[in-house]
Design brief:
14 helices; alpha/beta; globular; seven-stranded parallel β-sheet; about 425 residues
Amino acid sequence: MERKKILILCDCFPPFLAPRMGYLCKYLPELGWEPIIITELMPQSLSKELSNSNNITYINYYLSDNKITQKIKYTFVFLADFFFNYKDIIVAKKIRQHAKIHNFSLILSSTYRTYPLRAAYKASKKYNLPLVTDLRDIIEQFPKNEHISKKISNIDFLNNLVSFFFTKRLLHQRNFALRYANYITTISPWHVETLKKYNKNTHLIYNGFDSELFYPENIKSSKFTIIYTGRIWSLELRDPSLLFEATSKLLNEKKIDAKNFQIHFYIDENSINLMKNLSQKFNIAPLVYYFNYIPYTQIRNILNQSSILLLLTNKSTTPDGPKGIMTTKFFEYLAVEKPILCVRSDEGCLENVINDVKCGLAGKNVEEVAGFIEEKYNEWKQNGYTSISIDKDKIQQFSRKYQAKQFVEIFESLINKNE
């Protein structure tokens, strides 16, 4: 049976972030779909395994071996895109080239801000194709303009002013484009409720884990190790203070031994500086170790060697708190069936899932965090490893293969309506 062809337009694609789209494309062929991807070329950050396809078109807008040239190109692209939607214009040209070769059944556009939603809805209209828009993250979830990665000045007032107008334009463009989507998918119940204001046909497909890559192994270790992998943009977004304070408390009360207790961070240089300052504040710096990022295919081994897996977030119910953030990291933690410590609890979507599948603790105060660590520390001393009795049936909804089937059900229903 001939596969249906789907045009996927996304702001990034493996090995340049966006594992959600990478895993979807991994499983689409066995579900009867052939993905054709157009995306932006970015600095590599993930394994190349998710990009093993001849059907990916990477558009290089500004990357260059020369840093000065790259900075000039980046500035040009930023301004041209802000005022004239330059990136979407280039994508539209690539779409026309592919449309001459492929007979598409549907368009899927995926982003965390706006690009390339404009190109997607215009192509949907031009070729009379159903359009599914997938929003992996949205601007409203980030505290204090953290959806903007680069600052233009060291002057806060100027940065805030530019951020205000930039954000306002992005939201206007995004919300306009959302009205044209036949179907919107997103990553958490909070995201669903937020986006339903602009398109009522908005539905939930969680992020998840690939069961072929992530699975549990009970590995005995000589140290009790709390492990975190990822990036820490700011303490407003991800704050380990409760963990550090609880560790200090347990150490002072001699309920843990500094000789066999460690906290490992696999993070970038900026995150390391942030954690060093905070660990010194709580007098636990000697217990905290820092490592560089590791290849994606090696993450499972690191996770399985842990005693507790650390998930960092912050309270979502405050005005500046992160909203609805449920990272891929959380679901990969679930897959290896190790105890998860979430600090500080978001008191929202993440805490609800943690409690539902019984995978650990979403901590709200020092006492319960310290109690959780002490319990798992004693378990480790007895067995040499820790584990949890997770609800396996419930976590299957978070497998990438199951989620690919959810997407395909949407695709098929829209094609049937379009015939």
